[in-house]
Design goal:
Blueprint lengths: L1 H13 L12 H124 L7 H12 L1
Length: 170
Amino acid sequence: MNIKFILLLVAPIFAFGAGNGSGEYDIVPRVINFVIFFSILYYLIAKPIKAAYNGRINSIANRLNAIQEKLKASNAKKEEAAKRVENAKVMASDLADAIKKEIEIMLAKIEKDTQNEIAILEKSYEEQKEFEERKLVRAAVSEVLDELFESDAMKIDQNELINLIMKKVS
């Protein structure tokens, strides 16, 4: 490195301009000056430019990695959401089947209870009908007996009494 530095300091000595118009062109000294300027510029600026360039490459790579991580995370969440949707569909289907079975059970129970209620109502109706018939028979018998007992003039034997009661009841 020291040799390069010494050459850089000594090189301008050889690059004196051309003579005073004797037809010589100053292209060689100008090229040497340009090479010296460019080498000094490269020596001073190359490392920061390389560092900035590498830093930019690294920042882009880091952002790309971060974006890829986010993409992977969002894909994982998407897959998890899809699994939850499928599970929800399965649960909904199972729930619908269970509800249908419950409805069938409830309908059967309601039908059975309704049949029992109808049977109880029919039995109650028959009992009430029999009770009313007996009540009417008693009322008719009572009326006939009251008529017989009120009239002393008419004395009836037992056979006639039964015949009269049977006529009233029918």
